[in-house]
Amino acid sequence: ILAQSRFVSSSQKWFTSGAGVGTLKFEPHRIIAKDSGAKTWWFSAPSEFLGDQSAAYGGFLRWTLGHTSYDGGGLDVKDDWDVIIESKTAAKNAPVKFGIKGVFKAWNAKSD
Fold first, then answer.
1. Is 91 helix (H, G, I), strand (E, B) or coil?
2. Nearest residue to 104 (alpha-carbon basis) of 75, 67, 72
3. What's the confidence (pLDDT) of residue 67?
4. Which of 32-36, 67-71, 99-103 has the lowest mean pLDDT?
5. pLDDT class for 109, splitting at 50, 70, 90?
6. How many CB atoms lie within 10 A of CB 110?
7. CA 46/CA 55 separation, integer angstroms
8. Phi/psi at 49 (nearest 5 deg)?
9. Helix, strand, coil % (nearest 5) of the chain?
10. Could you tell me which residues are beta bridge partners of residue 101?
11. What average pLDDT does the segment 23-35 reach?
């Protein structure tokens, strides 16, 4: 394991980025943020997840995500990237970026 966050006693320096997101909140074994609507925001990793991670080549990435909507206004989950991993530099100074969509499925039923 090169880096991990279990959120046992703190947010472990994770933070939120993007538009419309509130302050990150720590609860045992998870971090939480609330948003103000249909804006894209994300959790950003602390320094131990950044930098040269080439020792992980051929390994695995494992995470747990959750999503709760208290007042979704009858709207589906936003169709955007759920997980993005991005390099700052790569061959020919072009960043490498890959992601996963569809981790959070559309609601089974929407309110009108």
1. helix
2. 67
3. 65
4. 67-71
5. very low
6. 11
7. 18
8. -95, -10
9. 10, 25, 70
10. 81
11. 87
